[in-house]
Amino acid sequence: MTDIMQECERMRTELQTASDAMYQAQHQHWRDHPDHMDKITVVPGRVWIRIDIGTSGAFMVHGETGLVHGIKGYGTPHKKVVHGRIDQITGEELLPRRFTRANTPPIR
Fold first, then answer.
1. Residues 70-106, buried b or exposed e (16+ Cβ, 10 A)?
2. Cα distances (Å, whole numbers) of residue 68 to 24, 31, 38, 101
3. What string of pLDDT tens digits covers the 108 residues of the chain?
4. Residues 58/98, Cβ–Cβ less than 8 Å
5. Number of C-alpha atoms within 13 angstroms, CB side, residue 97?
6. CA 26, 68, 105 angle in degrees (round to 5)?
7. Contact call for residues 66 and 52 (beta carbons, < 8 A)
8. What is the pLDDT of residue 1?
9. Burial of 44 (0-12, 13-18, 19+ CB in 10 A)
10. Cα separation of 45 and 10, whole Å?
11. To 5 degrees, how large is the angle CA 61–CA 66–CA 72?
12. CB hemisphere CA count around 79 (13 angstroms)
């Protein structure tokens, strides 16, 4: 396993912890439905390593440089959106940077 893949696994566990904590803070009766919490997975590819949250893509890591990018669509990195290097950022810092419609400023 490469160093970048090991860092992706570390990021996966940190993102899972942060995601679970956020879900528990937002949902009062989370113990009744623990299966509703998103599962974080790492999917290696030839060049890019995908970090998925639930069934959606969230981030892509370049396999050689370790740069964490946002996504345009599943499997397509947004190369202009760089969140940092995988070994220099934590899951707690990265989770709020995930693209969702809720945290996107309105178009004026």
1. bbeeeeebeeeeebeebeebebeebbeebbeeeeeee
2. 26, 32, 20, 20
3. 579 999 999 999 999 998 888 877 877 766 666 666 789 999 999 999 999 988 888 999 999 999 999 998 888 999 998 999 999 998 888 888 877 655 555 555
4. yes
5. 17
6. 50
7. no
8. 54
9. middle
10. 18
11. 25
12. 3
CB hemisphere CA count around 1 (13 angstroms): 9
Residues, the chain: 108
